Fold these 4 entries.
Entry 1:
Amino acid sequence: MATIKEIADLAGVSRGTVDRVLNKRGSVNPQTAEKILEIAQALDYKPNRAGLVLAAQKKNLKLGVILFGEGNPFFDDVIAGIRRKEEELACYNCSVIIKRVAVDTDEQIRAIDELLKEGANGIAISPTNDKRLATKIDEIYEAGIPVVTLNTDIKNSKRLAFVGSNYYQSGATAAGLMRLMAKNEAVHIGIIAGSSEILCHTERIAGFQHAIEKCEHIKIVETIMNFDDDFVSYDMTSQLLKKHPEINALFFAAGGVYGGCRSVLAQNRAKDMTIITFDQVDTTKEMIMKDVISATICQEPFVQGSRPLDILFTYLATGELPEQEYNYTAVDIRIKENLD
Amino acid sequence: MATIKEIADLAGVSRGTVDRVLNKRGSVNPQTAEKILEIAQALDYKPNRAGLVLAAQKKNLKLGVILFGEGNPFFDDVIAGIRRKEEELACYNCSVIIKRVAVDTDEQIRAIDELLKEGANGIAISPTNDKRLATKIDEIYEAGIPVVTLNTDIKNSKRLAFVGSNYYQSGATAAGLMRLMAKNEAVHIGIIAGSSEILCHTERIAGFQHAIEKCEHIKIVETIMNFDDDFVSYDMTSQLLKKHPEINALFFAAGGVYGGCRSVLAQNRAKDMTIITFDQVDTTKEMIMKDVISATICQEPFVQGSRPLDILFTYLATGELPEQEYNYTAVDIRIKENLD
DNA sequence: GATGAAAGTGTGCACGGGCACACAAGAGAA
DNA sequence: TTCTCTTGTGTGCCCGTGCACACTTTCATC
């Protein structure tokens, strides 16, 4: 592997001159610059990551993370990923600040301002899909602060990258599991959807519906909304089941899974019901072990915590952009036998 | 984060002395050593990875990889992972040598000797489960050459770590999919097993059988052996299906999947057959898209290529041992909707 | 013709750790 | 006493990169 020193020797100049050319810091004779660029290209020069990281320690980087509020156990697993990466980055003189906010654009913007005041050099955020937030992200991008979205994305903004599930595909995969478990029998599905403010919920439903349309013997009976509260979910699911005795499958696109399952159990309809959910929180595991939930689709929460920090650190320390803009986590099907 | 320099200043000695203590290189006054160790512990000293890697460049590390022979498309994905990591390690002055051998212990031992002659500092291998090979691994371990197994493991050896699937669990997961797709109907399963020399094949069958035993309405009709050849597999599957017209599910624990599926198609029995396989080679994808195979269980081949090299490099460059001995890749269920 | 600015270039240090070598102090032998 | 050997310690350089600063050369201005 070529080094700056080698390029300098070949070009007959000093390391400093090569450095100025490669980092576009000016004050170099155009002819010399061209020669250096040619040599660098010929040797396929790539800066040594260990050297870059070592030199970056002087920057004393601070990374900010903004997640949705407490009480959502899914994010505990995301935080586990953050903590792990935080530990790893600590020895590079890089620290992490976590803030948790409600599903509210104003709170998110305020959290960003707070992080900037605390000296954050980059921000990872699970955003609402709101234009005002997109504008804010563009603003701080122009000010040199990179942003990575995690878990759910925001449309039309200058965020560096997104880390999370391909929601459309994971909705379609839920439909595929319904298809496989149905064999050729008639299936009547009730959908329990999530907040329409969050991109990942709406996309999941879209992917599910599109894939279900191809199956003649599978019909969606009704779609209801829920708002992550298990007791609200319990009541709404109860009403849905009473209204449609023909329902033999449920698709939970967001939270409220536990309440919904309890309602199915209360009505003694678990045995003939196919239930597909998302994520793998403790209550969901419990319902899988009891054979109430057939399968749950996970989205690597640990990676959703660690990878955004990795992208931000790499960008800030070495200037390297992430390979892809969309860093999809695996569409991870879990059943009783492969839980954990 | 503490550095050697900081510890040295606090202890009133020089960097060299601290270095000798931390790396147990002797020639230090016992009292001074104790004092240094205390300070290091109090500051929770962990060496800076960037510094270590930079210093390790002088070692000019060489990593050897031994994989099963050409013609097995699964290993192409493993090699993709190796190539990626090789590229990453190139700038740390670390190179990779790949050798491919038959499923044969003598060839494997010969390949190890060749790699050592070529100056390899560490070896990754997908081994046969043979005592002679285990002895060889122990020998080179004593000589300071670490070994990591990948894809399939070897019992009772001093290999540093294993990277691959939890076969028992993935067999059980295959059974779980059978369970879910059966609902409450009777299922008669034919198993197409793989070579008994390879640990991962035998363990998969064990996990499958154990999980199936719990399901009253699912029975294993017959288990046949195949040896990865699609034409042999075609004939054997044909005979199995003719012998047992009641078979409505097939479990392929190893190779020969494509030949088996072609036989099912030739007999017009695909529509009512539930087929579960392993891995995601092109021919398997084709059969999933044609609704012949219901689901396939993957084992992150890319990770099986990259992670062993990561473990070896980290160990050789920084002295850090892998966190776990068993680095299980995900039991990754794929259906039509989440292929790729 | 001295002064100053501007453009272009080289050098030195920092970042953290490994390791070779130099060097000091003390003990034992000639 | 002088020489040698041992034990313990400090120093300098290397790994690759970034960046501040000092230096040279050229050209325009007073």
Entry 2:
Amino acid sequence: MPELPEVEVTRLSFANNIAGAVVESVRVGKTLRWPLGVAPMHLVGQHVAAVRRRGKYLLLDLDQGLLLIHLGMSGSLSFFRQNSTPGPHDHFDLQTSSGLLRLNDPRRFGAVVYAPSEDSSQAQKLLGKLGLEPLSSEFAVDLFYAGLKRRSSTIKQVLLGGQVVVGVGNIYACETLFLAGIRPTRVASRITKQQAGRLHAAIRDVLTRAVQKGGSTLRDFSNAKGESGYFQLEAMVYGREGLACKVCDHPVRLLRQGQRSTYWCAHCQKA
DNA sequence: AAAAGCCCCTGGATGC
DNA sequence: TGCATCCAGGGGCTTT
């Protein structure tokens, strides 16, 4: 479910509410991708200083260390002002003095992991190889182009891989390649500087607008206040196999790349 | 070092 | 209605 815009919208929806709050109790349900990595008691009494985002990870800064939260494929966070009883897929609760932060995740590909610091091995194992933040000023065309230059796999897989640029998931990878007119099977290192420029602009543009629109919902995304997004940025190709391309009327194609579906238009994406 | 596969898990949609 | 099969927006881990 969540790509960068959904994670960022989630962060914005509760960061100000939880900042400065004190952890009162922690409830761990079924184990997620990994165990929490610390005794829940250790978190009690600590302040939540801030909520940051790195790629698709949310970072909750505590007095001592931080929590790394990932939503996986099916995770979502909710923030409750009042008490609420957990449902069958609510696998982590952080009760604070200002409200309850709850992770719901049916598939349990998500994670909540404690790390003693951002430099710790626990944190670096997850964050250490992440690429450029597409919505920050560090996302320069030159750096992006240089990153693509040293990759020999296809551009679609490089976008998904997160080692050159973070936060672009399957939907946005398909959509940005369409907007840039680049075929998804193109070897990344053979992309020209001009094409890299178009792709760079498409990534910034689409992700920025998706955050502004409240996150896309092809299915069921909602932020931590329970408000759903609308997918007002309509997909040009994603999920549209066999339908007419919105630009040229040729049928949208489907292909498999690394066990993921890629949707694209062979007529519009010739670069 | 990088790339390619393999998995983790549940629920919803589709087909018989 | 019931059951089997396929698919899903992610990414760490293991093997090449």
Entry 3:
Amino acid sequence: MLDDRKLDVLKAIVTDYVSSKEPVGSKSLVERHGLRVSPATVRNDMAVLEEEGYIVQPHTSAGRIPTDKGYRLFVDRLATVKPLSPAERRAISTFLAGAIDLDDVMGRTVRLLAQVTSQVAIVQYPAAPAAQIRHVELVGLTTDRALVVLITSSGTVEQRTLELPHVSDDQIAQLRALLNSHLIGIAPSAAADRLAALAADLDLALRPIGTPVIAVLLDMLASDASDRVVVGGVPNLARFGDQFETTVRPVLEALEENVVLLRLLGEAASSVDGAVTVRIGHENPYETLQATSLVASSYGTVSDGRATLGIVGPTRMDYPSTMASVRAVARYVGRFLAEG
Amino acid sequence: MLDDRKLDVLKAIVTDYVSSKEPVGSKSLVERHGLRVSPATVRNDMAVLEEEGYIVQPHTSAGRIPTDKGYRLFVDRLATVKPLSPAERRAISTFLAGAIDLDDVMGRTVRLLAQVTSQVAIVQYPAAPAAQIRHVELVGLTTDRALVVLITSSGTVEQRTLELPHVSDDQIAQLRALLNSHLIGIAPSAAADRLAALAADLDLALRPIGTPVIAVLLDMLASDASDRVVVGGVPNLARFGDQFETTVRPVLEALEENVVLLRLLGEAASSVDGAVTVRIGHENPYETLQATSLVASSYGTVSDGRATLGIVGPTRMDYPSTMASVRAVARYVGRFLAEG
DNA sequence: ACCTGGCACTCACATCGTGCGAGTGCCAGC
DNA sequence: GCTGGCACTCGCACGATGTGAGTGCCAGGT
């Protein structure tokens, strides 16, 4: 079937097409790579590769371009990891220095990833499911509104405002103390039961405000930080101004839909720890994204928070470099989250 | 100079050009509007309008298109406010129902604004400068890291993590109590002095952790919630797939730079309360955005939080509708923030 | 003084043919 | 099984042409 030379030819086609973005013919292929055979031989090989579905010609008498299947083979068997440039190494090893808080870390990460890959970057907030509750704060804002803040040991701070009837500062203080005494040190998973019990035998005076506050807290506990996603590098799409309808628009639309992004990242990350996952063209679950590829990796650890990050770009993409960058960034962010 | 008919002609040109996006000629102008004169007369008027700089021809023997100056005159003197459609009214009056917290309000607002205007929407977080500090929370995360949370009476919650040497829970509790006793009820503007004094005569045991915490708090007080901005409706740029370089790319780039967005909104909003500001083409402070217009309005009140929202689109835009939508959304959000 | 119809003129743009060149498939020969 | 040669295919860039929308100007009418 596919002997070594044919694989070399495929590799050369992918490499050339990615850098030139034009169909590649037999002659230039032999010239640009050190293939020690004639163009005619390469043509025969290409005919076989085409028959097997790894490459196609856009029209008769044009060069060949890789199919999704061709890219897949390239990524799986042919790509040699391209080492990062010194500049990239430096950028990656310093971009998180001085980060202020988690938002800042996420923001810096997405910017870096977009910069080194020149693609659109997506980073999911890390989820630290085993965290303990560290503090519940309850603050009266106006006479009939209050703010609930939930702080966990992993540094997550979540807030909600809600309406309360007849709030007195005393009652708020009482409720705050009560909540904290019952919740501090508890894992969120266990907190739901605890809160339900608390709601049941609540002091009658506290009940009017306690009930809605507990409802909000339950809701906050049920929600997950990892359904937050940041996106960056959208201007990188400008390079594809030509194929607007096929490439740019679907990506723009997907980027506004967090649900879509999360599903994309979720499916991509369901693989081995720290490995880089590549989804090429039609392998994507969304029809509109079939002209694009996704390169993703999970990062972090379960205890420090774990999530996925990656980039979206055209199927014609420099996979070796991109995969190296994504892996490097994922590792670095994971290490940073662990060390603090 | 410009008699009524010439103004009518300008108005007709703007209207037609906005809807057709093609240069408009004298004949079709007379046909589509009820101008009771001949094309030749209109041509003479157009010659005058061109001489005065309100319209130009893209090339000889083509129709005319409005200049920025022409749009400006149109917006200032000719545009009649277009009433919102029932569907828009309905959307605007219900889109905030069930909002969970401020993030949610901002998110819903930006989506709504993008939807009703079919442009890219920008919403700035409201700033309530006169707020009091309601609570300072200090939480140890690991042995050498802590989380500082600052809560104000306007419902702002800001967080930072920082590294601390040798943290004991006792010291943290002590410092937390100390900070709260000095800061609760104080306006942020006065808090800086108070903190400086506190840092000066800090108990010796607390000093190693107190000093960095106070430094972080000072930094948090100096920062302003209103430097946060949310953006939505980016896929609406897809309609301008043609003029990528002139319109789409600069906007995409500006959207990634919060600083740019804030300056844009800031300059736009420096006007009267609740009035809709329009910046057309070259009136924008950024050269790359000279093919785009900004329609913005401030919203909210000083006490409840005040900021700016708006949309960015091509200079060829339906100003009456857009201005009506922006104004309606700004008013509604303002009212919502006031009522809670 | 102002409007109007007529007329010659100007270009952008679409259409069509043409030639070129990159690339192919196939075949005979080494 | 590789290679050089050769005829063939087509996309595309290029130049010529015609068409039509739109203009400016002018002379005549109200």
Entry 4:
Amino acid sequence: MPDTNEIKKTTFSDDKVRIKDIAVLANVSAGTVDRVIHNRGGVAPDSKKRIEDILQELNFKPNRMARVLAIKKDYKLVVLLPEAAQGDYWWDIIKGIKRAEEEVSDYRVKTEVLQFNQYSMESFATLAQRLLDLTPDGVLMAPFFRREVLKLTKELEERNIPFVFVDSNVESVNCLAYYGQQSHQSGYVAAKIMLGNLEKSSTILLVHMMREGGEAIGSNQTAKREEGFLAYIEKYSLELSYQLVRVNLHAEDESGNEAHLEEIFRQHQNIRGIIMFNSRIYRIADFLEKRKIKNIRLIGYDLLERNVQYLKSGVIECLIAQRPQLQGYYGLTALARRLAFHQPSKPVCYMPIDILFKENINDYKVYPFDVD
Amino acid sequence: MPDTNEIKKTTFSDDKVRIKDIAVLANVSAGTVDRVIHNRGGVAPDSKKRIEDILQELNFKPNRMARVLAIKKDYKLVVLLPEAAQGDYWWDIIKGIKRAEEEVSDYRVKTEVLQFNQYSMESFATLAQRLLDLTPDGVLMAPFFRREVLKLTKELEERNIPFVFVDSNVESVNCLAYYGQQSHQSGYVAAKIMLGNLEKSSTILLVHMMREGGEAIGSNQTAKREEGFLAYIEKYSLELSYQLVRVNLHAEDESGNEAHLEEIFRQHQNIRGIIMFNSRIYRIADFLEKRKIKNIRLIGYDLLERNVQYLKSGVIECLIAQRPQLQGYYGLTALARRLAFHQPSKPVCYMPIDILFKENINDYKVYPFDVD
DNA sequence: CTGTTAGCGCTTTCAT
DNA sequence: ATGAAAGCGCTAACAG
């Protein structure tokens, strides 16, 4: 970061100092200067000291363009993400990655994307192995399946290959960086929007998506969002003001879900809000649309195309978004900059919690990703 | 933009094709290829055709690093903005500019910032002249004082100097790009948040800031926001549900303002909401804090430090933000890329309308600007 | 330990 | 109209 506490006027005058200049000042050759800059050893202590002082004083920053050009090494990055379909969350992350790829291709960075089945640990494990076989110089991944992730990252650390996480983080693992959202906080915000002006004693449905076998779908993101939601309720002591009803749907059982929802609506006459903590709120919207049920506040996550349609048409009240494109973009550029420029990164970077209503969705462009 | 409709796997294999490669294929020298790439003329028609075909077929993209390195030209950018104090809106724009400056300094782009008094047309005019005297290669400005802006941009166009606008746009002027917010829309969103759950028949204050002489302070941004606010009310026919009261404060008359507000509060017993369309909502918060008046919903614009404090402490309900840093950052990089790479820009880029509550302000980091 | 040298890919003279 | 050559700032291999 520039030191913005003192915004100083540049004067158009400061000519860039080059390694050659340093060399002249220190009475050595460019090669020697280069050696101390990169700590490559083999320099007499006094020369070293002298050069370092000059470097310091002139605040020397090597020209990255020249640097990249001179280093012939190609870098290979491997990306490990769930399979994505157009318009869904992971697709957007990949979109950001592709955008970054364009930019870093000048740095001789190449990328290969591996996509696993997010419901199959085996698929993840297989691709983790493939990844290692590719002998990448850096890795970007969505850390699904904790145990497998730990195995993979352990191996990467041993091989000294930097990796970054997107979407969710794995504490205690030493990644180069993590880009994602504060899930708990986003659930908290969701509660505020849901309950801010909801008539008391209404019923609110918390809808979950289960896999076959009864396991909840979604990373721990989903669970943390719900925790945040409940934390808000507790904070403002709203436990008695609203009736919270949990509903479990099943990913593959469309008609069963409908029947189940019908039943819920029969049991509860005063449903005024429905929230889902994963990205599938459009399914609820489908249901309500079909039955022409109105006046229910729907809140969901992520700007899937179908979600956005329902937001625009007023069926969904609010969507909370987390900039998947930026996660991918920053994740990849962090790796590229680390490799090409040895540039460090912040270990944890949270995306803003974006609140989208019908009224601000049209302006929501994540420039420069959504250009056109 | 990458064509993200077909996310193709890269294979690590595609070796970058260089000008030299093209030259060999076309049986000419690198110099000739370069001539056709840059349309510099002096190439036999048949050679030209041959080279162009190969360029096309191989989808040749010159290496920007090498390009920048080889071109010795330095670029001078001049930035023309209002004076800024730490923590205010214009400061953030400059912050984004400084950040961009770092990045583009490798492209041999240098920047000089000129700051005018936003209440003095004369000051703007003077600096506009100074700007021209600096013979910049590109200009970034906040278009205050329409007439002066038109004069300046006319001159710039004649000299073929590209310029970009930030904050607000000037229609009908042919700028390289504009980065800012859809003000009307943001007022609309503000109305939704204000009125969504406000008890009917409440009184709402619309507070304006006037300059000496009775002229409203703020660019046309401010006016457009209010229009948007009123448009929402009209759309949902809420004219009779709430009592809207306009209040005019004066920038330099602290105690007069207090008296005036006191009077307003005496006249209206049921004030439940207050909105300001410029960034000074903290002044109202000051007033309410001092008098321990609660239960009034305050909505304002921009993340000035004082605004944010009041948001966090719960005095302000909501702030609408417009990413000033990004405006500065994108504005400057657009110019730099245009100059260094001849890269075109979208003419108009709207920033997202960010809605900040107490609950999501802590996560609101505009990475990579707010790192640390 | 240190200097020299040959590039990286592109642009730009300067001859021919 | 075109090719050859020098050089941007930096790196890396080699020679001393």
